[in-house]
Amino acid sequence: MRLVLWYKDSTGAPFYSYDTRGRQSSRGTHWANEDSLGRRSSFEPHPVTPLLRIQDVQEEDQGVYRCRADFKASPTLNARVNLTVIVPPEQPEVYNASGHMVREVAGPYKMGDTARLTCEVKGGRPPPNVTWWLHEALVDDSWHQERGVTRNTLQVASLQRADLANQYTCMAGNTALRPHLSTAVRLDISFPPVEVRITNDKQASVSANKRLELSCRVVGSRPRAEVIWSRNGAVLSGAVTRSQGDNVTISTLRLLPSAADSGQVIRCRAFSPAVPDTVLEDFYTLRVNYRPVVGLTVGHTLKLSDIEEGDDVYFECHIRAVPWVHSHEFRLNGKPLVHSKTDKIIMINQSLALQDLTRERSGTYTCAASNDEGEGVSEGVYLPVKYAPRCDTGQKQIYGAAKFEEVLVHCRVEASPGDVTFRWSFNNTGEVTHLPTEQFTVNGTESVARYSARSELDYGTLLCWARNAIGWQKTPCVFHIVSAGVPEPPTNCSSHNSSSGSLTVQCLAGNDGGLPQLFVLQVRGPGGQLHYNTTAQQMPRFSVRGLQPNTFYQILIYARNAKGRSKPLVMETETLRDAAERRTEKIIDGSLKESFDGMLTVTPVLMVLIVAVGGLLIIIIIVVVLLRMRGRPTSRRRGTPPLTGLQMKEIGHQAEGDSKNPDLIQTHGEHGFPMIEATCSAEGGPERCGSGRAPSHRGRSGSGPDPGRPGDISYIPAAAYVGSVSSSTLPRSSHCPQHPYGSDDDADLWPAVATRRPLLGGTPYPPVPSDEAVQYAQLSLPRGRSSRTGGPSPVTYAQLEHQHHHNHLPPVPPVPPPAGWAQGGRQWADASPPGHESSGSPRSGDGRPSGSSSTSAETVVPAT
């Protein structure tokens, strides 16, 4: 074979040639036309079956191909072959009934709808076969071709839930040489819910104001159901909805039901968004347990603004509660009222009747009821009971004032209505005087009267009346106007050790003297130094700290007001050695008896022991007195008058503010206790007072008095301490000290010789202020002088009487002579002998000195 030529169809020019002329047959020359077919063609000169290979066959390559072969020794050979090119169709496309291309999912469709799906295939030669398959089953093979497009329309009628997600496949193919082309779509169908149910127990009750969670379960909806909660037609918001599985929807609603919600219906409505016209719902009736809802009303025939004392009032309590109440009550100002015919409080079921009202029934009334859920209280109804004025409590009722001192007396009343007028009167048991209106002021329910006493008759009682629209005050407010004075000392004082370095003192307050008072406590330590000083305003209660353990202290307590201070109450105490040791205490004033009474009640043995010792001491004192009486000489020098002009005067420290008070003697001994000095008077002249030399002061040195020396003088404790000292006697001597100046007018300037005898032993203390006064002193006549021939030596008792400024203080009673003495005669006069008056001492009409204090003398003769 020398030459091979390839022709297509009827073209006269070959598109490919193979030439071996002048060469070996296996090394021929290949030639191809430059057109598309020539570039994709190649020839394989196989000796047996030569082959023309066309690459990338295209549709235009279809035709009749002719092969011309020239041989070297044989004639030319022509062969023809028909090449048929099959063109595959394009990818099938699916369109819905609306002409929209469907990609993977067709729909959504509603239940009962008909799904129309058209599969279109373009191209393909020969025309392709277009079919619909469900899974592996052929469901539609009816296709038709129009204008190069092959179509097949699938119809699925009356879609049901079973058709959901069915996958239909459109397949197109025109040759068995290659797989068919396919496009699959899945049906999407929307369903309405088939079940809506509230899962809570519909018979259960819930508590008011406690959180309630309702759950609604929706089944069968596609897509996820829309859930709407409502209460009595009103949409509720705040629900939380979630999907559970393919077609289950859970919606949760949280509520806080109140008592008003009881009986209301909660609805759960569900529907598919794709099928909104199909709605299912369920409901839940609220059964709310709540604490009572209470209301209180007054009788509709009553007008609260016109209620007065003596009227009757009725209340009605209205209750709503689930479950029903197990108790209810009425309250006044928050306090329960109790049914009482005596108090005229009548309760019947849910009604309250108040009969014969008093002002104490004014206030806010409420009704309270209780059940298992709790207690409910109604709104308060205020009941104003009108009443005539009455005195307010807690007012000051005693006003102390000096003469010509103006005091402001406050009168407060309670009244309803509070628009009041006042009237004042003064009563001194002799007459009643009305105060003019310009003497008092009115401010609301309080009136202030200005009052001043100009004489003793102006002390008495102020009466205050008020009037309002109801009427006059029935009982006036009473205020006492008294003469102001110094307060009385505290009483019933007691103390106890809180620890070894502290103690607490508590007393009862005495009379304040008509003026506001305060209380002062002072603590003095060994050596007399002031260790603690404190003041109490309302009550005499003190707490003392910082004391040294195992140490004696002296405690002074007194009251003070604008007029001065009271007598001090003196206590001695010893701090503890340790926490287990109790303190010892001595009360050295009028409270001594109370302390002794408390001590005697400790044990019967101690009481018997004290009585025995006391009796023994009395017997010893009587024996000593009798021995002294029998030991005196039976004859005395006649003509010597008894000691005259003996005066009791104070020595030493005087507290500031009390130095001008003639009722107080403020001399103190070495332990701070009051002492009295007796001195010679010049009434008897120089010849009665010794040789004219100045008296010695040995008695002040502490060595004691000299019994043999004239003019020695004893200190006698004050009345508060007489309970511990029975008497003290001047030493008998023949003469008084000589007047150093030789003039009667200077008698008050004589120095005194004294021996101090404290009441109690122990640690010495410096002078302490005291307002105690001497009650009596036993005075002996000079040795050798006698007022009665052949009789025993008389003894003169001097008693100090006081005219206190306090109108309420009683007079000091006379002091009886010591036991064992017979009373020879009484004459209440100066300490001077009868018929003798001291110069410069004016007397009143009854023979007593006109000063604030006087001295009485009583002559007593020993019994024979």
Keywords:
5% helix, five-stranded antiparallel beta sheet, 4 helices, six-stranded antiparallel beta sheet, mainly beta, 864 residues
List the helices and strands and how they pair.
Layout: E1 3-8, E2 16-19, E3 29-32, H1 36-40, E4 41-44, E5 51-54, E6 63-70, E7 77-83, E8 87-89, E9 93-95, E10 105-110, E11 115-125, E12 129-134, E13 137-140, E14 144-146, E15 149-156, E16 167-173, E17 181-190, E18 195-198, E19 206-207, E20 212-219, E21 226-231, E22 234-236, E23 240-243, E24 248-255, E25 265-272, E26 275-285, E27 288-298, E28 313-322, E29 327-332, E30 335-336, E31 345-348, E32 351-354, E33 363-371, E34 374-377, E35 381-383, E36 387-391, E37 398-401, E38 406-416, E39 421-427, E40 432-434, E41 440-443, E42 446-452, E43 460-467, E44 477-483, E45 491-499, E46 502-508, E47 518-524, E48 530-536, E49 541-544, E50 552-561, E51 564-565, E52 569-574, E53 585-587, H2 592-600, H3 604-631, E54 647-649, E55 677-679, H4 698-701, E56 713-714, E57 754-755, E58 776-780, E59 795-802, E60 821-827, E61 853-862
Parallel strand pairs: 10-17, 19-27, 37-44, 56-57
Antiparallel strand pairs: 1-2, 1-6, 2-3, 4-5, 6-7, 8-11, 9-11, 11-15, 12-13, 12-16, 14-15, 16-17, 18-20, 20-24, 21-22, 21-25, 23-24, 25-26, 27-28, 28-32, 29-30, 29-33, 31-32, 33-34, 33-35, 36-38, 38-42, 39-40, 39-43, 41-42, 43-44, 45-46, 46-49, 47-48, 47-50, 50-51, 50-52, 52-53, 54-55, 58-59, ...
